Amino acid sequence: MNQAIRFHETGGPEVLRWETVEVPAPASGEVTLRHHSVGLNYIDTYHRSGLYPVPLPSGIGLEAAGEVTAVGEGVTELRVGDRVAYAGGPLGAYAQHRNMPADRLVKLPEGISYEQGAAMMLQGMTAQYLLRRTYRVQAGDTVLIHAAAGGVGLIVCQWAKALGATVIGTVGSEEKAELARAHGCDHAILYNREKFADRVREITGGKGVPVVYDSIGKDTFMDSLSCLRPRGLMVTYGNASGPVAPFDPGLLAKMGSLFLTRPTLFGYTAEREDLVAMAQDLFEVVGSGKVKIEVRQRYPLAEAAQAHRDLEARKTTGSTVLEPF
């Protein structure tokens, strides 16, 4: 019997249901997985709430790690018993067992556990494209990362520091500031005590930063723009406080010929060769010890609703996993 979390209407965490879901034999190009660990990500709340609409009823979740238990016709790269992980659609990672397209899976290196795999794929590859593709951070750069004590934030802090950057991060409490500092953040700004834009200007001697990584959205967008130096890049990659309101693009010219991008992990990993290369880059930096993946919260998968409540209340730090068994 396979249990999974599904939702039949959008809304708060209470819409999540623990249901029995049949898993058929894998179709051509698919494999069946037995999940050992499932990742929790903020995008899951967007699907559940309806901010990112999906056909209903629906499974939920985009990230997990597990073992291949059956292989469909035409699958040549994977075999039964392989340890694999993924970060991407189709939705349905909140499940004990499921079928997945084989070309969306990557093999886990021996030194990385299932739990680490589930905790690092989506957040880690997000950090990878932010730091190595959207804006290629170089030694001597100063970068601003919002939610520096979150899952992506802690990875970005460590990785950017390893690249030789000075890292400025925003956080919501002194406890989170200490956590961010312990993971490479040079300047942790408590956004509820001081204006982060003024502090960034102070730290940079008035110059501003070349790039801002902003997953907060509505509440931080305009102030984030004011942190940028001329021709700086604003990377808005999430909407934790809600979507950014429409604005006159002439503002970007007025504030210094700024650049703006709204990337997604799925845009960067649409081609399998990019997915594999990004995962390999992530595995290498984690394997080297420069970036440590720490699971800081664990919930039974059946209690996914509580995990969502805690995530949205900003009670979590770093990576969180859901345990399917």
Automatic annotation (TrEMBL):
SUPFAM superfamilies: GroES-like, NAD(P)-binding Rossmann-fold domains. It holds the Pfam family ADH_zinc_N. One of its GO terms (molecular function) is NADPH binding. It comes from the Bacteria. The keyword Oxidoreductase applies. Residues 11-322 form the Enoyl reductase (ER) domain. Keywords: NADP, Oxidoreductase. PANTHER family: QUINONE OXIDOREDUCTASE PIG3-RELATED, QUINONE OXIDOREDUCTASE-RELATED. This is Quinone oxidoreductase.
